[in-house]
TrEMBL record:
<feature type="transmembrane region" description="Helical">
    <location>
        <begin position="425"/>
        <end position="446"/>
    </location>
</feature>
<protein>
    <submittedName>
        <fullName>ABC transporter permease</fullName>
    </submittedName>
</protein>
<feature type="transmembrane region" description="Helical">
    <location>
        <begin position="310"/>
        <end position="331"/>
    </location>
</feature>
<keyword id="KW-0812">Transmembrane</keyword>
<dbReference type="InterPro" id="IPR003838">
    <property type="entry name" value="ABC3_permease_C"/>
</dbReference>
<dbReference type="InterPro" id="IPR038766">
    <property type="entry name" value="Membrane_comp_ABC_pdt"/>
</dbReference>
<feature type="transmembrane region" description="Helical">
    <location>
        <begin position="253"/>
        <end position="274"/>
    </location>
</feature>
<feature type="domain" description="ABC3 transporter permease C-terminal">
    <location>
        <begin position="261"/>
        <end position="372"/>
    </location>
</feature>
<keyword id="KW-0472">Membrane</keyword>
<feature type="transmembrane region" description="Helical">
    <location>
        <begin position="351"/>
        <end position="372"/>
    </location>
</feature>
<feature type="transmembrane region" description="Helical">
    <location>
        <begin position="648"/>
        <end position="669"/>
    </location>
</feature>
<feature type="domain" description="ABC3 transporter permease C-terminal">
    <location>
        <begin position="653"/>
        <end position="771"/>
    </location>
</feature>
<keyword id="KW-1133">Transmembrane helix</keyword>
<feature type="transmembrane region" description="Helical">
    <location>
        <begin position="701"/>
        <end position="723"/>
    </location>
</feature>
<feature type="transmembrane region" description="Helical">
    <location>
        <begin position="743"/>
        <end position="766"/>
    </location>
</feature>
<dbReference type="GO" id="GO:0005886">
    <property type="term" value="C:plasma membrane"/>
</dbReference>
<dbReference type="Pfam" id="PF02687">
    <property type="entry name" value="FtsX"/>
</dbReference>
Length: 779
């Protein structure tokens, strides 16, 4: 019986039922996809951490080390479970050619390191998550290059520096728990011990990774403070286990959150459409409901009949959405599978998507029950007498045409109808708002990541290029030579030398910690500060957002640093955002000890008519092995993977949103034309042409869509902005500001959206030609 009721209702309202099914299905589909992405990401990351025996604390160090001192520290610290010191041979990109490409990696932002397989932990794995073993003449290449350079097994990697030319055959690709993500600008290539020793004699300089596994991860901060307060090596970035997890999950985690957002918005649209459809159905069946009540059918039984229809519809849509997700989800998990591998399936992995779809189904049924409460207000007498629920009547005030003689009659009648039925058109208005929100938030987020201004969230000012000098022999002499050359170069418009050194700072728990402080003139290439501004004197310091939160510091508070062996109180002048070096950096104008310098950076702008690429090539050769970087290419190389994934989601969001706007406009007009049939007949009988009536409907729909576009744009720039800041807070950039392309966001997309609505209106109102006036009047 239930299926017969559903079948008859479907035959009576085919288009309405199909549209509702599509909305419910899409919401269930995306909810299932997002939950599967999260489960896949969580499982694969946990499996990679386990298989690689990830270190818990890593201190990178450039320069000589005391192995005996490290061993003594490890043996006397009860928290240390395992310790190893890993050599990494840094190779300049200009000496490396990957595959059949004739170009070297000279312009790559990645620091290339050659290593041997580690003995006990921090294991480098292949695409099957097995420990990599390579023979002489073989090499395992990071996955990043497989994707960026389209490398395959059997391709060659060539090293050449004039002293030793060496060719390797690619036999594997490396999953590296430390350096997997594109946002990490260092990559490790694995070679055989014999090859490594030969390269060490002729190529590059050695950098050390001092790695620890500890007995209790909950005491990681305690161990970090102990290490930093000791005299252990520390000329380089410090990274730890939580940061490994965050960086590896970042790209796909962001995509999952965006998919969840779109799914929730689709559910809201489905609910709004469901409410409108159910109210319209109740109005259509109002007399029948009165008759059923009159013959003794209980109110609860009547409600069950109507609820059953939507229960079957929601169940079919949810099931179909889940089944489709099994194929569609591969689009979103392909990146996880490549970078993290596939984890053994657990019982939760198939269950969680089912629960997500079940939640969508449950929410739809809950809203149906809420809407059907209006049965309580229906009386037999009123239903049989009036035959209408009176829900969609809207405003009853009168607007007189004679007062608005300057307005076209068709425009006036269209505006008047919108005013008279605000409740009905309000539904369409909110659907348009949500549709534009679904389009603009991913578009604005994508535009922000691709903008050169995004570099400000990496703790550096915007400039044409930068030159990095890492730790090496006579680094200070090379730095001074670089400054002298820049001062004499007429092609350089301006430049700013920036020196990063290691200082001691008194943490919030009263323990002295290490902090990387960049010194220099920060007014030349200024940062964008969340609060406050640039440190202008030697008594001020600017903190990164994560440092400020960790130490609970605000602008105007004081920080105690150890400078030249003495404690010095500095006032916090500003707080900026930084997603590099774990997001924990600072900037101040302090005297520095050359022995404590970690690295030198020079940011510079060239004159307007000078080629940036030409100047980069010149300085790369002149100051070899300095790394010369074009900041725009830096963003594309480090965030390229995230941008590609976000482009996929953005394209999907636009397609879904446009499809929704077409379907809901067509559905709405079908209902409206059926409801207004007698009114249309009257208008035609008094001389209005079909074209006039069509214009009236276009005015209605364009007015509602125009207002929806305005509020949707405002919501995307406010609520959507907060959403972006929530995502950014995981990276140390909790105050990300959308970089909006005004032509696209405020002109092209809104006009395209209105054009779609206008075309749908024209197509949907063609059916009026088939109507006979006499028939309409009789009805």
């Amino acid at each position: 019986m239930l299926l017969q009721i559903v079948k008859k209702d479907f035959q009576r309202n085919k288009i309405i039922t199909i549209v509702l099914l599509i909305f419910m299905m899409l919401s269930a589909l995306l909810a299932a996809c997002a939950s599967q992405v999260i489960m896949e990401l969580s499982g694969s990351l946990s499996n990679l951490l386990d298989k690689s025996k990830a270190p818990h604390f890593v201190q990178m160090h450039a320069g000589p080390i005391d192995n005996a001192g490290i061993q003594k520290f490890a043996s006397t610290n009860p928290l240390v479970k395992n310790q190893q010191t890993v050599e990494m041979l840094r190779i300049d990109g200009s000496n490396v050619v990957l595959g059949n490409n004739n170009k070297s990696e000279e312009n790559s932002v990645m620091d290339i390191g050659f290593v041997r397989q580690n003995p006990s932990f921090d294991l480098l794995l292949n695409l099957e998550n097995q420990v990599i073993r390579v023979s002489e003449g073989e090499i395992a290449v990071p996955i990043y290059y497989k994707k960026e350079n389209n490398l395959n097994i059997g391709d060659q990697v060539t090293l050449s520096n004039g002293q030793l030319d060496k060719k390797f055959i690619v036999t594997d690709f490396v999953r590296d728990i430390q350096m997997n993500p594109a946002i990490v600008s260092s990559k490790r290539f694995v070679v055989n011990d014999t090859d490594y020793n030969a390269l060490k004699k002729n190529h590059g300089e050695v950098e050390y990774l001092i790695e620890f596994q500890i007995t209790d991860l909950s005491r990681l901060s305690e161990f970090r403070n102990t290490y930093q307060s000791s005299d252990m090596p520390g000329k380089g970035p410090m990274i730890d286990y939580p940061l490994f997890k965050t960086l590896n999950a970042l790209t796909d985690g962001i995509i999952a959150v965006v998919i969840i957002l779109v799914s929730i918005l689709l559910l809201i649209i489905a609910t709004l459409c469901l409410r409108f459809t159910m109210i319209a159905t109740l109005e259509e069946d109002y007399r029948e409901i009165g008759v059923m009540k009159a013959i003794g059918i209980s109110q609860q039984d009547i409600r069950r009949i109507y609820l059953a229809k939507y229960m079957v519809m929601a169940a079919c849509a949810s099931l179909l959405g889940y089944l489709l997700s099994l194929g569609v989800v591969r689009l979103f998990t392909a990146n996880i599978t490549l970078y993290l591998g596939t984890a053994p399936k657990t019982i939760l992995q198939p269950i969680v998507p089912v629960l997500a779809v079940g939640l969508i189904f449950g929410m739809i049924m809950f809203f149906c029950r809420v809407i059907l409460r209006r049965f309580n207000r229906i009386t037999v007498v009123e239903a049989l007498r009036s035959g209408t629920v009176g829900e969609l009547k809207g405003n009853t005030g009168t607007i007189v045409l004679s007062k608005y003689k300057h307005i076209n009659v068709n425009v006036f009648l269209g505006l008047k109808d919108v005013y008279g039925r605000l409740t009905m058109f309000g539904l369409l208005f909110f659907v348009f708002v949500i549709c534009l929100f679904i389009i603009l938030v991913p578009v604005n987020l994508l535009n922000t990541l691709q903008s050169p201004r995004f570099i400000s969230y990496m703790g550096v000012g915007q400039s044409d290029m930068r030159i990095d000098l890492q730790q090496s022999d006579q680094i200070e002499k090379r730095f001074n030579e670089l400054i002298t050359t820049l001062n004499k170069d007429p092609d350089i418009a301006k430049f700013s030398p920036l020196i990063t050194s290691r200082f001691k700072v008194l943490g919030s728990d009263g323990v002295w910690e290490n902090i990387n402080v960049e010194t220099g003139d920060f007014s030349i290439f200024p940062l964008t500060y969340v609060n406050g501004g640039t440190p202008e004197s030697g008594d001020e310091i600017a903190l990164s957002d994560l440092n400020a939160k960790e130490w609970n510091k605000r602008v105007g508070d004081s920080v105690l640093l150890e400078v030249n062996g003495a404690s010095k109180k500095l006032t916090v002048s500003g707080i900026y955002q930084d997603i590099t070096n774990g997001g924990r950096t600072a900037k101040a104008r302090l005297p520095y000890d050359p022995k404590s310098v970690l690295w030198y950076i020079v940011a510079l702008d060239v004159n307007p008519n000078v080629s940036v690429q030409g100047k980069m090539d010149q300085y790369a050769k002149l100051f070899y092995p300095a790394k010369v970087t074009h900041l725009e290419s830096y963003l594309s190389q480090t965030l390229g993977n995230t941008i590609r994934q976000l482009k996929l989601v953005t394209g999907l969001s636009i397609a879904i949103s446009i499809s929704i706007s077409v379907l809901i406009t067509a559905l709405f007009l079908k209902m409206l034309l059926a409801k207004d049939a007698s009114q249309i007949a009257i208008l035609r009988s008094i001389g209005f042409t079909l074209e006039d009536i069509r214009k009236q409907y276009q005015v209605r729909l364009l007015l509602v869509s125009g207002l929806g576009i305005i509020l949707g744009t405002f919501s995307a720039n406010t609520i959507g902005q907060k959403f972006a800041q929530l995502l950014g807070s995981f990276m140390g950039a909790s105050n990300i500001q959308f970089v909006v392309n005004p032509v696209v966001a405020y002109l092209i997309l809104p006009l395209f959206f209105m054009l779609i609505v206008a075309l749908t209106t024209v197509v949907s109102t063609i059916s009026m030609k088939k109507s006979k006036i006499s028939k309409l009047i009789v009805e």
